[in-house]
């Protein structure tokens, strides 16, 4: 009999999990507390309890070629960075294409997931749900937890002396929907993550004055990267990753700083990250330097004190009148339906082997999908996790002994830098390509670049030097997709189809032609010398 798998949440990770279960002949039942799929990507006018919330203007910060499910490219007429409404449309197309909807029970909240009394033998779980006020319960052979980690706001009011006396309005960025509330107001946004920066920039078009307060500073990069290419298609390549990972961290950090400063010098804009030993997720914003240089956004240090109608910043004596404070201070996460003995969250980490399996359970029948911060898109990352998980649930892949898993988890908690490459030492951070490659190795789906360079050099070179698009995770192994090779070789066509909407004639530069001729001559000379 097929194993029954309960999937909690029908966002990006839940949808991938349903599909992976079906592919491996498992029987998934997905419980989604809200009334539709899409999770975070489904914008609603009002914040819903227990589900991540977006503001209307959110556009993805990883591009469509890097953010798709590995066997389902975005429609080619979609923009490279996808507005939330189109992102949701894409997820709906995915669910329809793979017939996932019939496996989802909407308006059904998972209240508890507990081990069955014979868990050590069966590995089974009792899942208690609530649907329109009615409780239900069922036994499952396995559970995949896909509830995301951007729902519970982190609001450290204690760190802001005087906030209780503030007479203006304050709220967490989770509550923010439209910029109209900022019209003619003096606005302070606290926290320079992607939310804070987006909100400050958006407010600056309407507000009287906007301050963006940052304790740590950040690298700000534009989606429009080198020569206009999407940033992640340039940054996330196997070649670049190998190069970065073979250099000592201080050199990589220096090179990174040079790169980041090539758009604008961060120190001159008061933005330069204070702690450069650890990677801080870059802020993707195409407008911020323009808003700063035109005086529409003022970058400020941390807050010393909040008063009735104003704030005082550290290291600046002047009191600034403020009407609205937005706390863009990020999120915490928890699993309220799980007992702490199953997954314990401490200091922003959960004790999960490879960010997925509770390391101490005697049976590997519970997995968390999408609880990771790779420097790359979470969509293919969660999907690859799910591909491995379903094979573990089926018993095809085995986990190492508990002691090995616990050791790995503890080592990660210690956050010791390796000394090479970027330092992914903060909680949940991971090197995107290395992490996915590791999971692909477990399921025999990692592309073998060496043999590919011999058998299909065009593809091999594109994979090595080109963007690490998810299609390369489907070239081989279980779940192999016949369209993968073609999708890789046409990825740039889809990228520029939507930007080159007016056909232009490029006049060839005589200098470039001369350079090409000289290179050819040098190559011929080298060949001649080798065989002489
Ligand atoms: C503004 C913003 C922009 C982002 N842009 C990008 C981007 O460009 N690229 C990228 O890769 N990532 C991006 N992210 C990260 C984002 O988290 C992922 O893209 C993705 O949405 C995560 O999907 P998920 O399925 O893991 O979680 P979610 O999308 O949060 O889905 C979780 C689902 O679980 C349901 N649920 C929760 N608890 C229960 C319960 N007890 N019972 C039943 N159902 C439950 C929720 O209702 C929800 O539908 C962005 C995040 C934000 C905030
Ligand atoms: N367009 C997009 O695609 C988009 C938009 C928004 C969010 N996102 C994603 O959503 C996720 C969450 O982003 P987020 O910006 O909401 O959260 P975040 O990345 O966690 O950033 C929160 C920021 O709050 C500040 N902060 C934290 N604790 C603080 C404290 N005690 N006092 C003062 N400041 C404090 C820090 O900024 P300082 O060091 O500057 O003070 C921190 O960087 C990220 O993965 C992000 O990439 C994407």
From TrEMBL:
How does the record classify its membrane topology?
A: Single-pass membrane protein
Name any one GO molecular function.
Answer: flavin adenine dinucleotide binding
Report the cofactors: FAD
Q: Which residues form the signal peptide?
A: none
Q: Does the keyword 4Fe-4S apply?
A: no
Which residues does UniProt call coiled coil? Answer: none
Query: Does this entry carry the keyword Transmembrane helix?
Result: yes
Q: What class of enzyme is it?
A: oxidoreductase
Query: What's the EC number here?
Result: 1.-.-.-
Provide the primary localization.
endoplasmic reticulum
Intracellular or extracellular location(s): Endoplasmic reticulum membrane; Microsome membrane
InterPro entries named in the record = FAD/NAD-bd_sf, Flavin_mOase, Flavin_mOase-like, Flavin_mOase_1, FMO-like
UniProt lists the family membership as follows: Belongs to the FMO family.
> Would you tell me the protein name for this molecule?
Flavin-containing monooxygenase
- Organism, scientific name: Panthera pardus (Leopard)
Provide the taxonomic classification: Eukaryota, Metazoa, Chordata, Craniata, Vertebrata
């Amino acid at each position: 009999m097929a194993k029954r798998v309960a999937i909690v949440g029908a966002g990006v990770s839940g949808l991938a999990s349903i599909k992976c279960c079906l592919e491996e002949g498992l029987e998934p039942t997905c419980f989604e507390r809200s009334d539709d799929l899409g999770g975070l990507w489904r914008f609603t006018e009002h914040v819903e309890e227990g589900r991540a919330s977006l503001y209307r203007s959110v556009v993805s910060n990883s591009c469509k070629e890097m953010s798709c499910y590995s066997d389902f490219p975005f429609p080619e007429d979609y923009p490279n960075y996808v507005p939330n409404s189109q992102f949701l449309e894409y997820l709906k197309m995915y669910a329809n294409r793979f017939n996932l909807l019939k496996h989802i029970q909407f308006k059904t909240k998972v209240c508890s997931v507990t081990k069955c009394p014979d868990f050590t033998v069966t590995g089974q779980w009792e899942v208690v749900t609530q649907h329109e006020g009615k409780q239900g319960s069922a036994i499952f052979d396995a559970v995949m937890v896909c509830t995301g980690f951007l729902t519970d706001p982190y609001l450290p009011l204690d760190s802001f002396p005087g906030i209780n006396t503030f007479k203006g309005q304050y709220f967490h960025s989770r509550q923010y929907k439209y910029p109209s509330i900022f019209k003619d107001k003096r606005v302070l946004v606290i926290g320079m993550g992607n939310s804070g920066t987006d909100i400050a920039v958006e407010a600056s078009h309407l507000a009287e004055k906007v301050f963006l307060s940052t304790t740590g500073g950040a690298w700000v990069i534009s989606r429009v990267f080198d020569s206009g290419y999407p940033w992640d298609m340039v940054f996330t390549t196997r070649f670049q990753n190998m190069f970065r990972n073979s250099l000592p961290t201080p050199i990589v950090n220096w090179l990174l700083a040079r790169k980041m400063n090539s758009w604008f010098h961060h120190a001159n804009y008061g933005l330069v990250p204070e702690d450069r030993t650890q990677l801080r997720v870059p802020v993707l914003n195409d407008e911020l330097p323009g808003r700063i240089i035109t005086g529409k956004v003022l970058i400020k240090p941390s807050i010393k004190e909040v008063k009735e109608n104003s704030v005082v910043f550290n290291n600046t004596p002047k009191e600034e009148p403020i009407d609205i404070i937005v706390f863009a201070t990020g999120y915490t996460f928890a699993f309220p339906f799980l007992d702490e003995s199953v997954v314990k969250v401490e200091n922003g980490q959960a004790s999960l082997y490879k960010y997925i399996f509770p390391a101490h359970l005697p049976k590997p029948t519970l997995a968390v999908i999408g609880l990771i911060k790779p420097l790359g898109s979470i969509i293919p990352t969660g999907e690859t996790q799910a591909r491995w998980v379903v094979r573990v649930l089926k018993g095809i892949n085995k986990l190492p002994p508990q002691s090995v898993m616990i050791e790995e988890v503890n080592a990660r908690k210690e956050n010791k830098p390796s000394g090479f490459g970027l330092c992914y030492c903060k909680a949940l951070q991971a090197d995107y390509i290395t992490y996915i490659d590791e999971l692909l190795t477990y399921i025999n789906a990692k592309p073998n670049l060496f043999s590919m360079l011999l058998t299909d050099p065009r593809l091999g070179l594109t994979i090595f030097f080109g963007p690490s698009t998810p299609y390369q995770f489907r070239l081989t192994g279980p779940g192999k997709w016949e369209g993968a090779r073609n999708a890789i070789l046409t990825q740039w066509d889809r990228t520029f189809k939507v930007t080159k909407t007016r056909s232009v004639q490029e006049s060839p530069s005589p200098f470039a032609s001369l350079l090409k001729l000289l290179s050819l001559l040098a190559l011929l000379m080298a060949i001649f010398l080798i065989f002489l």
